[in-house]
Amino acid sequence: MTSTDTTGAEQPQLFMFAGPNGSGKSTITTPMLADLPGEYINADDIARAWRDEIPDPLERNRQAARLADRQRQLALREGRSLVFETVMSTPEKVALLTQAKALGYQTTLIFVTTSDATFNVRRVQQRVILGGHDVEPDTIRRRYEGAMTLLAAAVEHADQAVVIDNSGTEPQRVAQKFDEQLELLAPIPAWVTQRLDQPWAARQASRRTLRELAGTPRFHTADAREGQQYSGVLVGRTAWHLLQRTAQGLVLHDLSLCLVPPVEEGEPLTLRYHYERGKLSRTP
């Protein structure tokens, strides 16, 4: 599976398999890996390889997550295609999509979830019985809520996306995005309407509002990676986005990926992206 850019050169690709713990990401991902380009990066695989070297599971998982992040960043800096899994419960993982697009990647999101975190808790418990790694039930529920809250933002920032409901005995593709159009696939579960379709529609309306306010359809989305900074004037904001006029042109910021200081339209604004353990944080 390859893609070319406007110059005809092969375009690097990023595939992000995302979803809450216990959704069945690995089960769905594994058969697809042979057909996907680039390096496969999975913190769980790293942690399993360190089981004897680092006995404490919490420390082992933390170190594995840090190494996986370094491997992802190295691949992006070198322009190599990559495939990785993530729970996507914090904004910094969604920011990876904006970073990759700014670097010229084609980005694909495959989001696997269930209709309720109870499914995820039970599946992780079953996984532990079979020798898999454990995750505390409260952590699963918290991460479930975080990932579902970020779903519409992730779909917005991906070039293409597939959303899979894995609540039943067989995975069901419930939504897909191609050519900037979101399509829901029947039968449509209630959670898809609430968690994806409604916030997606609100986000699209937000973008239209800011285009009309700026008087132009042309702006680019901010690269939300750690440390990126934009200075300019606030043009306008909605509940979902902020539009800023910079020396390089109009920049659209996703408010789920940044914290914005109090400022009025027409006033100067410097916005710097910063995360602590994946969560939004003020610049130190």
From TrEMBL:
Keywords for the protein's UniProt record, in alphabetical order: Plasmid
Record keyword Nucleotide-binding present: no
UniProt cross-references to InterPro entries, sorted A to Z: KfrB (IPR040782), P-loop_NTPase (IPR027417)
The KfrB domain, residue ranges: 229-281
This protein's record includes keyword Iron: no
Superkingdom as given in the UniProt entry: Bacteria
Gene3D superfamilies according to UniProt: P-loop containing nucleotide triphosphate hydrolases
Protein name: KfrB domain-containing protein
